[in-house]
Amino acid sequence: MPHPIDPIPKKQTVKHSKPYSWSCISYRNDYCELPTAQQSIDNLFKSRRTHYPAKSLPPMLAMSLIRETCRYRFLSHNMVEKRAKTATVSAGALQTISVMLLSKQNPPLLYNRETDKCFLLSVLNPKELSRAINVISNAAEGASGDYLLFVADKAKINSFYDSSNTLIFRDCGALLQNLSLHASALGYAFVPLGPLGQDALNAIDDSKDRLMAVGTALIGLQN
């Protein structure tokens, strides 16, 4: 396997792409109030374990957890570049990774930072999406719960960097770890999984030139 190419900041930023326009059925913003973590960060680090869930979280509770980890907390005054601060480190403060909730029973849900809303996405190929979710489920050994799909906007990061793939996967790993710690702090189960989830993304949205699936995870309630 060839060694990854180092990312290179562009000397002159190309025209920044507009936020990706997802095809959605409707949206929701009826977020839940999350419980307060009952342990210190030191105890969280000591006690954190990977627990497989016993059942799914209510969808908007899961989306509320995602929102709290992903939402904009500070926006740059220079909004041409759309640099922003969230709870998670990100290359160039670009925040190019979005999180989608996949369920075998419900339409895909996506947290959209630009609007602070939860999009109910339309699906290009429901049969293929069901098949792709089953593949992800196999990686979780058929455990209960729902699945998170991490999606990178390549156009956004490629406006600022050449050879950006290592940055994309680094950012996904940082976000995945933050969601894992956040879920653990609230007593929820969170399991990082091996599949990247590209087949699931292709079944939902056909924008291979711009979007890339970069990771999956399982989330739910513990016993």
Indicate the topology:
Blueprint lengths: L7 E2 L14 E5 L12 H7 L11 H12 L3 E2 L8 E2 L11 E6 L6 E4 L4 E5 L4 H14 L6 E8 H5 L2 E2 L2 H21 L2 E6 L4 H7 L6 E11 L2
Antiparallel strand pairs: 1-9, 2-7, 3-4, 5-6, 5-8, 6-7, 8-11, 10-11
Q: How would you portray this structure in words?
A:
With 223 residues, the chain is α+β, with helices and mostly antiparallel strands. The protein has a single domain, classed as NADH Oxidase (3-Layer(aba) Sandwich), CATH 3.40.109.10. Helix content is 30%, strand content 24%. The protein is built from six helices and eleven strands. The longest helix is centred in the last third of the chain and has 21 residues, at 165-185. The model has no long low-confidence stretch (mean pLDDT 91).
Fill in the keyword field for this structure.
24% strand, two-stranded antiparallel ribbon, 7-stranded antiparallel beta sheet, 6 helices, 223 residues, 30% helix
